[in-house]
Amino acid sequence: MTTRRIFFTRLALDARIGILEHELRATQPLHIDADIDMHVDQQVNDHDIRSVLDYRKLREAIIEECTRAHVHLVETLGDMVIQRLLNDFPEVFRVRLRIGKPLAFSDCAAVGIEVEASRQ
């Protein structure tokens, strides 16, 4: 069986995330990297976007999940995004997600988490 990976590198968005007082009052930037692996069961038709998984839909799902409500922990957000992608896109069998908070500390480019999950 053939597999294909769609990836996002440094998808930038503003989210309501964190437990600190200033994080509870305002959004902060996040950077998202994702590797999304799927099974390919049909030939690509160069004239029909429906013959592939449209990465615009994956991007939209990631953004919606990251911006729909305040989340206290970046670990929780990572789990939420992965579950959304696995639930909404049946062809996806594995997701590796990296979420970085670039403004968390002044002495490093970002701090965050990386999480990976596969369909059972």
TrEMBL record:
What are the alphabetically sorted keywords of the record?
Answer: Folate biosynthesis, Lyase
Q: What pathway annotation does it carry? A: Cofactor biosynthesis; tetrahydrofolate biosynthesis; 2-amino-4-hydroxy-6-hydroxymethyl-7,8-dihydropteridine diphosphate from 7,8-dihydroneopterin triphosphate: step 3/4
Tell me the GO BP annotations in alphabetical order: folic acid biosynthetic process; tetrahydrofolate biosynthetic process
What are the record's GO terms for cellular component?
cytoplasm
* A UniProt-annotated Pfam family: FolB
Keyword check for Lyase, yes or no: yes
Q: Name one GO molecular function term.
A: dihydroneopterin aldolase activity
Catalytic reaction equation(s): 7,8-dihydroneopterin = 6-hydroxymethyl-7,8-dihydropterin + glycolaldehyde
Which Gene3D superfamilies does the protein's record reference? Answer: 3.30.1130.10
State which Enzyme Commission number(s) the record gives: 4.1.2.25
Q: Where is the Dihydroneopterin aldolase/epimerase domain?
A: 6-117
Task: Give the family per the record.
Answer: Belongs to the DHNA family.
Q: What is the role of the protein in this entry?
A: Catalyzes the conversion of 7,8-dihydroneopterin to 6-hydroxymethyl-7,8-dihydropterin.
Q: What is this protein called?
A: 7,8-dihydroneopterin aldolase
The beginning of the lineage is:
Bacteria, Pseudomonadati, Pseudomonadota, Betaproteobacteria, Burkholderiales
